[in-house]
Amino acid sequence: MNSILKDRLYLLISIAVLIMLWKFLSLIIDSEIILPSPEKTLIELISIIKQKTFLRAVFNTIFRSLTGFFISLILAVIIGILSGIFKPVHYIFKPIVGIIKSTPSIAIILLSLIWLGSEYTPILVGFLIIFPILYSNIIEGIRNVDEDLIEMANIYKVKKWRIIKEIYFPSILSYLMAGAVTCLGLNLKVVIAAEVLSQSVVSIGEGLQFEKYNLNTAGVFSWVIIAVIISAIFDYSLLKLQNRIEKWK
Q1: Within 51-120, where are the H helices?
Q2: Cβ-contact 175, 73 below 8 angstroms
Q3: d(C-alpha 56, C-alpha 32), whole Å
Q4: What is the helix (H) or strand (E) element at residue 50, kind and residue range?
Q5: Left (φ > 0), alpha (ψ -120 to 50) or beta: where does 93 sit?
Q6: What is the Cα–Cα distance from 238 to 249, expressed in whole angstroms?
Q7: DSSP string for residues in 171-195
Q8: What is the pLDDT of residues 96-153, one digit of tens each?
């Protein structure tokens, strides 16, 4: 049995054990409001999937998550490279990034609601949460560039844009992908949390809020399972991309 099949087998065993433990605890607690059974959750999951607005809710949440992620990614690459190469740019953005990292998430959500309203709040919140992580990874990647290569390029008067493209960018790619794998799933969680608080219409966050108001814990679990599946798809896609990039390098 090869390593891929072994990993999949271990994953299935882990899921099976988790479901059995869940069933065992639900029998002991014996309260659907506190901890619904796996069967009840599955029934609710099917019911939610059959809803007319289900696909739109999932699409809206994924769209907000990916929009915030790609805005963060593009700006982090541009500003991170400039900050890593030019010291004045680094010192300009250092306090800004520090403030963003230190500001509580709930404060960011509340301020976003005041500035943008419920529709765009999750995008801004996701951006502000993951931008510092991506930015820091890129700075770290630049710090690990071989100084001898830079010095040699300067001696031979290689153009700055070529140094960035052919020396800096390949160096930061591994750090960028590692940060992206972490941030894509994190961003989805942050966006859903912002949707719950901002009551974004037709979204996973709204679905969670609706089930919570109706004390339907099985419904809450169902939306959580949907979010976990989406996050797993994100992670799997990025890991595949990361493997291809590593082979290309």
Answers
A1: 54-85, 87-102, 105-116
A2: no
A3: 28
A4: helix 38-50
A5: alpha
A6: 16
A7: HHHHHHHHHHHHHHHHHHHHHHHHH
A8: 888 888 888 788 888 888 888 777 889 998 998 999 999 988 888 888 877 777 777 7
Q: What is the pLDDT of residues 4-61, one digit of tens each?
A: 677 778 888 888 999 999 999 999 998 888 999 999 999 999 999 999 999 999 999 9
DSSP structure class, residue 206 = H
Q: In this structure, what token pair is assigned to residue 235?
A: 């992670």
Structure token digits, residue 181: 């794998």
Is 64 within 8 Å of 198 (Cβ atoms)? no
Between helix 217-248 and helix 38-50 the angle, nearest 10°, is 80
Report how far residue 76's alpha carbon sits from residue 179's, in angstroms, rounded to the nearest whole number: 11
- Token couple for 79: 């500003």
Contacts of residue 82, Cβ cutoff 8 Å, sequence gap at least 6: 89
